[in-house]
Amino acid sequence: MDGIVGRRTVTPARGEIAAVLRRLNADGLAIVLVEQNAKLTFEVTTTCLVMENGEIAATGASADLRHDPQVRRIYLGL
Fold this sequence. Notes:
The chain is of the alpha+beta class. The chain contains four helices and two strands; from the N terminus they run H-H-E-E-H-H. Helices cover about 45% and strands about 15% of the residues.
């Protein structure tokens, strides 16, 4: 899925989308999610591959990458 949650997606819809993705994954479906919304991405994934300017910048467990300084700089500009 590519960019399923944009800036204009209202908060309740984001929660519903996250719930559906978690349910599908729990049922054994592997999901490739291309998404710029870091909060949603880290919420519904167990493993992430983070890209910057077309290059792989980081890969690993979502829980670890959520706090990685390089990933935070890429997604949040920190």
